[in-house]
Amino acid sequence: MTAGLSTAQAVNAYSYLSHLECGRCKKQYGAEALHGTCECGSPLLARYDLNGAKTALTPRALSSRPCRLWRYHELLPVRAETNVVSLGEAMTPLLELNRLAEESGVRALHLKDEGALPTGTFKARGAAVGVSRACELGARRIAMPTNGNAGSAWAAYAARAGRECLVLMPRAAQSICAIECTVAGAHLGVVNGTLSHAAAIIRKLAAESDWYDVTTLREPYRIEGKKTIGYEIFEQFGWRVPDVILCPCGGGVAIIGIHKALAECKAVGLLQEKKVPRLVAVQSTACAPIPRAWAKRSSEAEEWTNPGTTLAFGTLVPKPLGDFLILEALYDTDGCAVAVDEQEIIAAQRAIGSREGVFVCPEGAATFAACKRLRADGWIRPTDEVVLLSTGTGLKYPNSVSEAPPVIDVDNPGRILDLWTR
Amino acid sequence: MTAGLSTAQAVNAYSYLSHLECGRCKKQYGAEALHGTCECGSPLLARYDLNGAKTALTPRALSSRPCRLWRYHELLPVRAETNVVSLGEAMTPLLELNRLAEESGVRALHLKDEGALPTGTFKARGAAVGVSRACELGARRIAMPTNGNAGSAWAAYAARAGRECLVLMPRAAQSICAIECTVAGAHLGVVNGTLSHAAAIIRKLAAESDWYDVTTLREPYRIEGKKTIGYEIFEQFGWRVPDVILCPCGGGVAIIGIHKALAECKAVGLLQEKKVPRLVAVQSTACAPIPRAWAKRSSEAEEWTNPGTTLAFGTLVPKPLGDFLILEALYDTDGCAVAVDEQEIIAAQRAIGSREGVFVCPEGAATFAACKRLRADGWIRPTDEVVLLSTGTGLKYPNSVSEAPPVIDVDNPGRILDLWTR
């Protein structure tokens, strides 16, 4: 509306979505019906008329648009602005961590803080775009299994859209996510089993009825929301790329999305330099199929049997459906994969909190632990500009802290205060 | 930097702060030293060269500035941009609640959702500006009593500024806030008493040492951060005002701040209409000194003895230091004050969650309960445009929900699913 007056611009489409394409076998599908995965079982990816989008999606046009993910609407799948389901998802901050950069011996360290999004995590991006597009295509009700945060986000956006939502989570999921689903009015069940059990129940339900299965990468549009992390980082760098981006990796949608954003931004000319950021997938040693596959230069991951426990439970995915796309993103950008342990994660979370003031989720903290490891072994260089992706707020992880504060006696507050206030 | 090239603009000040003035006795103080309250014990308010600011702070100038509270820097107290301590506090969304507007019988209902701010509440605004200015004026370390959310915010910004922070909270404070203070590396103690006991300890400590006491309204700049809620609402309305703004009220800094924003926006010409929004202070029936004082048309509140408990614990302030400023804001705008009970709060929180997808804090939910009450008795009219201020995210209040989700047996999921999926 605000940008320009020429006839060409007046007829611009809100979305330049053209079709869907299998990420593995490349089979194409029309984009105007609800789809799940490809016949071959792999995720479908949204493809766009990039030449068309190129004339509309320019840095100049972007400069006058609201700071929220819909600013990139030409390369998002929703056809009509009136179909956008929004909870006010603002562009998240890219914070400079100057103290930690200096201590870590890198030129610049930035934190992309996704905790500011609705429901407190980056899952809101996928849910905003996924729910909007599902409703635009006529989905009446949606169902999903979740480890927690995705369920919260999709339940909230379904409520915003006025659609029914069904969420199943394992008992081990964090309690705050169950609370969020309840407040959002979702049908919520806790399964006496694993995430895979929950997924099987949802798959059967969807096959037999009109519930739309929105499990990770089993519908094509969640990744379109997630890729906006990449668009925002590149725009916040002034349409340049950093040297390294470290992402927590569970299902891998963020890293696949950033890789997709990179290709699209280059194709439409938003990014004009040849350089690519080295993408790093970060997992917990409790469940590290991607670092293991990367170490072997495999194109797929083997299932991680008997995953352990970790505070960074968002990374607990033994065999991601999009494993080949994650690994492709790493190989294509000269990236790598790293597994970090609980002590490193907790120490990193405290360092970011006490040195920079941000309470990041354990998954986000894991990226700083990985950064320190990669700097120590020289893979990250002193001249590198590094971005850490913190996928959510620490507020959803009260078990990050185990110590209790001391009790101060109001009649005799002296001893502890003396110690602190010397 | 980006706006204009004239000489006049080139010499614009970052802040037009001129002096401090007592909100009660009007005694003036210089603004370039650290101050607490006035000699008379009342809060000091920041005053600006409004004629100077008028030429610089225009809707046009604002249109090219980043969407964060510092966009109003001419009317904020920080002298130099390099002294800004920021965690990326973005302009918070103003969400239309169309379903609830229709159900409530008002023309338009908007939710100002402060949950998107760092640390998840509006306290981040006060802490961002308060910590920035305290550091600019040379404060070496800061101390405060808190019911929870303010402590989290100030601890985070103090860490971001690289300053020591000491926080004392009553045992009854929510545990997540203690966790946040710990992660931020603050000195944190829990007192075996009330907020007043904690405040007395801090006051003594500050009197005897170099700890700067940043208790609510005992330093002049927290309110300057909070007033940006008003600036944002007016700007998001296209520099118009809504008919009614409902604010949760504890210490009252939000309502005092919005009232101050209204006067300043009119003085510098950002708001050109004569209309003022009717401001409503919302408290819990557990502790309602402001509604009681308003009902008597008193200019001050009497202390509420024996406050009860409420989920909306942010409103539990028996005798706010700025009571006379809160009441002045109500009388001056033809506003009112309302107390709502726990059942109304919980019902309102569920309604906003399930009908609109936002998990608001109980304090925020209380404003919708009050809106329904005021609409029912005709004080809010069908033609009114109404804004609800939700001061934080529900994520910090896990005790909002007591029911547990049903357990689904993975071997026999039928019964409950059948019920839901009919």
Number of helices of chain A: 16
CATH class annotation of the largest domain in chain A: Alpha Beta
If you consult CATH, what is the topology of the largest domain in chain A?
Rossmann fold
- The SS-based structural class of chain A is alpha/beta
| Average pLDDT over all residues of chain A | 94
Account of the protein in words:
The structure is a homodimer of 422-residue chains. The first copy, chain A, is α/β, with parallel strands linked by helices and 422 residues long. Chain A has 16 helices and 14 strands. Chain A folds into 3 domains: 7-83, no CATH class; 94-120 and 222-400, Rossmann fold; 123-213, Rossmann fold. Chain A is 37% helix and 16% strand. A 6-stranded mixed β-sheet of chain A has the order 4-5-13-10-11-12, with helices on both faces. In chain A, helix 6 packs parallel to helix 7 (175-183). Chain A is globular, with a radius of gyration of 22 Å. The interface between A and B is large, with 82 and 82 residues.
Short key terms for the protein model shown above:
6-stranded mixed beta sheet, 4-stranded parallel beta sheet, 422 residues, disordered N terminus, homodimer, Rossmann fold
Topology of helices and strands:
The structure is a homodimer of 422-residue chains.
Chain A: H1 7-10, E1 17-22, E2 28-29, E3 44-48, H2 50-56, H3 59-63, E4 94-96, H4 98-104, E5 108-113, H5 123-136, E6 141-145, H6 149-161, E7 164-170, H7 175-183, E8 187-191, H8 195-208, E9 211-213, H9 222-226, H10 228-236, E10 244-248, H11 253-267, E11 278-284, H12 289-295, H13 323-332, E12 336-340, H14 342-356, H15 362-376, E13 385-390, E14 407-408, H16 414-421
Parallel strand pairs in A: 5-13, 6-7, 6-9, 7-8, 10-11, 10-13, 11-12
Antiparallel strand pairs in A: 1-2, 1-3, 4-5
Helix pairs in contact in A: 5-6, 6-7, 10-11, 14-15
